[in-house]
Amino acid sequence: MSKIDSLRALINQRDVQDSQNAQNPDVGYLGVKNQPSIGTISVLQDNRFKELTSQSIGSLLQGQAAGVHVINTSGAPGSGALVNIRGISTLNAGTTPLYIVDGVPVRSIRNQYPLALNADNDPLADINPHDIASIAVLKDAYATAAYGVRAANGVVIVNTYGGTSGKTLLDITLNNGISFVPKELSVLNADQYKSYIIDEETSRGQTPAQITSGMGRYLLLSTPSNQRWRYSNNTDWQQQVLSRGSFNDFHLVLRGGDAVAKYSLMAGYTNQGGVITGTSFDRFSARFNLDYKVGKKLTFLNSLTFIRSDKVLKDEGNAPNTNPLLLATLKSPTLTTLQHDPTGNTLRDPDSSDYAGRNNPYAIIYRMRDENNSNRIFGRITGQYTFSPYLNLRIGIAADFDRLNELRFVPSAGFLPVTYVQRYSAQANSTELMVLNENTLNYERVSKSGDHAFSAYLGNSFQSTSLDAKYVKAINSTADQFLINTNDPNFIDSIASQTPTWRLISFFAGTQYSYKSKYTIGANIRADGSSRFAAGHQWGYFPAVAVSWHATKEDFFKPGSFLSDLTLRASYGITGNDDVGYYSAYNYIVASPYQGYSAVKLGILGNPDFTWEQTTQFDGGIDFSVLKNSIELTANFYNRVTGNLLNSIALPGISGFRSYTVSEGSVRNRGVELSLSTHVKKGSFAWNSGFNISFNTNTILSMPDRTNPIVNYPGGFSTILKAGSPVGAFYGYNATGVYARTSDVTLKNGATNAIPFKGGDMIYEDVDRNGVIDTNDRKIIGNANPKFFGGFHNTFSYKMFDLTVFMDFAYGNQVYNAQRAALESMSNYDNQSTSILNRWRQEGDVSAMPRLQYGDPEGNARFSSRWIEDGSYLRFKAVTLGYNLPLKSARLNSVFKSVRVQVTGQNLYTFTKYKGYGPEVGSAVNQIMYGADYASIPQAKVVYIGVKLGL
User: Fold this and answer.
1) Which pLDDT band, with edges at 50, 70 and 90, does 728 fall under?
2) Residue 59, domain member (yes or no)
3) Above 90 in pLDDT, residue 805?
4) Using CA atoms, how far apart are residues 827 and 197, in angstroms rounded to an integer?
5) What percent of the chain clears pLDDT 70, i.e. is strictly above it?
6) Any idea what the Cα angle at residue 13 is, between residues 10 and 14, rounded to 5°?
7) Which residue range(s) make up the domain with 416?
């Protein structure tokens, strides 16, 4: 819902009285008091997300606001989310919105990725959701252009609780619950697996005698008696990896003040265990907000926050050697977790033996370590001097200090050696400091008649960000018990460091005029100078204009009519994206030792003409309500075109470089957003609902020459980036079935020197119709972008009871199920899905599953539409049943102002056709490589009991 006034009606009444921030949510530079908002802004109050167990701001937005598509990167505790506002508008630059917390811009992605492969190190999880009073999402160019070169992906403004005048208020919240183990994938048991291995060996021409003397020693056919303990098991590896997690949350808010000073003190502790055994997220946070007056004209606005967070992580995504969830489905069920002595007694060390080359998931869970901790302090001091009731000056300084330490240890027990490395440890630490100065002169005045309202602002800011990061890796320590050996130079394998700095200087201005609240026009502009670009390209200018007509303010609309409110809006403007790395515009050298001597070489070939990505956007909208505002509808149409895309073009090998960075290419996002809210009240019963749905079409308009449009990712899948296709288009073979008989074959296989396929092989579409299936027959076979997405929020209340049901959904997006591709490849000694039991076995069989064949010489498991699945879903995101205890006795009233108990279930059920652990698939490493599932950790089902005490 984009209308701030209508949303305020949904705020909990106590919060309205207690929190000035909740009454007047900050919506950025456009937050004028006496004029209607003409920017497209969605405002969410705390009652829309306070029941969720998500620890990241991005995750809290899922399903909450039209035009905001959120994909959780992982179900691991403390993980973040990919947040796309009105589509993906870049290919290689940053895709995340600009986040501002209490006026301070904060990072949404740490510059140093975690040592745990493909894991999420989301800095937004540092901010305690219980501290948040409101979140405003700025979407159109008029609302975002005021933030210039950082606003192309939208702006998210977070406001925490401020103080209150009157009595001191104390709120204590206690939540305790558990997360449930997701449903296991159905894989072969030990007996089924042994039969599969025999068939696999037969497919490569092995006789029964050869099988017995070869692989038979692993199948108990010719196993020495002292080794039978290794292969006589029926291990459920998923059971070894998955477990119930815990959820414990404590939060305290103390608020008070008077006419001179208002304060709020917030402190909280969260402990969340993951469904992957051993993973966890711990956070302690403390925040102090203080506003106080010095005389009649000077006011200071202060905020200080400290956060300590600790994470225990595991590798995720395409990490085939160390992703425990992926290995839990591929590891042979005949193998054991722990070693045994000759008498059969179980020992403490994990078993390393694996003829298929797979590490022991048990060892990954209990012996391998991936931990990080961060200490973060950020705050601001703002002085506001009021010259008159119409004019004030704000001068503010802010800082954000973040210290991150990481440790990774890979043991030898349970792991197969990699070349000369038996075990290794790695450590990394980084210190990041952001300093901001912002000065704003604000003017706002309404004429005596009330017919004319005018506001303007003028300001400048300076921001500096510096990073100091170090990394060291050591190998082959004496024993697994020595976790850290990076201090001994005899074991050091590699050392790296970086110390980049980025600076931004800005000037900005804006004005807005309204006549009788009927006609409103506004304009703003920002000039940004960024150190990321070379001289001559450092400054960018980002203007925007908007108009609105409040039709129901016209005299011809009679009070009390069916139509309560009608407003038409339009805006146009330009925003930018400078999240393109620190030094892409510059040449710089790197160390390059040669023959034992120190040396340097040119590491990056910079492009002095390189510049920011630029987005132009038109937005048109309508807000109307009927039946005394009991039904409200907001509709928006937008057209966004982004040019100067960050791209790489190929260079000749003689240049010494593979590619060269350029600012070329364009992409368009066009869509419609609809938000509907209803408010029903009859006696003691009330029902408030909010529904939003968004349709977005993403299209690449142009790409630079000398760019290979096909992008090949690790793990064997490809996407294509060419004019006319969307970002996130899967590119591969179109599989249409399985040949039932060899006599049905009409095509030849280009992978086997044009030898015809056989019965049991996959049927692929012959795109070029030359009778041979080869790389020229690849086409777009799927799209990771949904056709529409949204959410549905309902709150029912009757007397002291209330029930909240929140659902989110996405439709039309497709997922590459890389895990199923491994579990149905039937080409090696990995365990397989039980679905292969229905495979093609003989001439005439009709099956969707091809024949088994070691090594897959026919390419039946190649990247094709066989592995592309429907990722649509409808999920019960959160269901809460609450009861507000009536405090009838004088004794209770003297202690408590309110007592509330509730039971909440999150992610209770998901309706989907997807065959993996869950349809929501994101990537914490590559922001546009979503839609590929390498055993992604699913969103956990969580049930908890909560108590909130008001004192």
Assistant:
1) confident
2) yes
3) yes
4) 10
5) 94
6) 135
7) 4-163+280-316+367-607
What's the rounded Cα separation, in Å, for the pair 101 and 305? 11
DSSP annotation of 185 reads P
Q: What share of the chain is helix, strand, coil (3-state, %, to 5)?
A: 15, 45, 40
Each residue of 68-102: pLDDT tens digit?
999 998 899 988 888 999 999 998 888 899 999 99
CA distance 649 to 662: 7
Within 10 angstroms of residue 684's Cβ, the number of other Cβ atoms is 10
Q: Is the pLDDT of residue 24 over 80?
A: no
Burial 567-584 (b: 16+ CB within 10 A, else e): bebbbbbbbbbbbbbbbb
User: Cβ atoms within 10 A of the Cβ of 925, count?
Assistant: 15
Side chain identity at residue 630, one-letter code: S
- How far apart are the C-alpha atoms of 368 and 605, rounded to whole Å? 39
Q: DSSP of 821-849, one letter per residue?
A: HHHT--SSSS--BGGGGG---STT---SS
Q: What is the DSSP string of 682-746?
A: ETTEEEEEEEEEEEEEEEEEE--TT--SEEEETTTEEEE--TTSPTTEEEEB-EEEE-SSGGG--
Which tens digits make up the pLDDT trace of 334-389? Answer: 999 998 887 778 888 888 878 888 999 999 999 999 999 999 999 999 999 999 99
> Does the structure show a pLDDT above 80 at 2?
no
Distance (Å, whole) CA 654 – CA 821: 39
Distance CA(775)–CA(397), nearest Å, equals: 57
221-254: pLDDT as tens digits: 888 888 888 889 999 999 999 999 999 999 999 9
Q: What residue type is assigned to position 570 of the chain?
A: A
For residue 7, give both structure tokens.
Answer: 């949303």
781 located within any domain: no
Cα 232 to the center of its chain, rounded Å: 42
The continuous run of DSSP H or E covering 901 comes out as: strand 898-906
3-state SS, residue 456: strand
From 32-36, 884-888, 937-941, the region with the lowest mean pLDDT: 32-36
Q: Which residues of 49-76 are buried (b: 16+ CB within 10 A; e: fewer)?
A: bbbbbbbbbbbbbbbbbbbbbbbbbbbb
**Length of the chain (residues):** 951
Tally the C-alpha atoms within 13 A of residue 258's C-alpha that lie toward its C-beta: 1
Q: What is the DSSP letter of 864?
A: B
For residue 76, the SS3 value is: coil
> How many domains does the chain fold into?
1
DSSP state for residue 768 in the 8-state scheme: T
Map tokens 């009608």 to a residue. 566
**Percentage of the chain exceeding pLDDT 90:** 63
The secondary structure of 186-239 as a DSSP string is: -B--HHHHHHHHHHHHHHTT--HHHHHHTGGGGTTSS--GGGHHHHS----HHH
Strand bridging mode 814-817 / 932-933 = parallel
Structure-token pair, residue 657 = 């470089």
CB 229 within 8 A of CB 340: yes
Q: What pLDDT score was predicted for residue 707?
A: 80
Domain contains 615: no
Least confident segment among 104-113, 445-454, 614-623, 937-946: 104-113
CB 663 within 8 A of CB 642: no
Cβ–Cβ < 8 Å for 59, 101: no
Bridge partner residues of 710 (DSSP): 720
3-class state of residue 130 by DSSP: helix
Question: Under a CB-based contact definition with an 8 Å cutoff, are residues 808 and 786 in contact?
Answer: no
Does a structural domain hold residue 58? yes
Q: Which residues of 392-410 are buried (b: 16+ CB within 10 A; e: fewer)?
A: bebebebebebebebbbbb
Lowest mean pLDDT among 122-131, 625-634, 655-664: 655-664
pLDDT at 265: 95
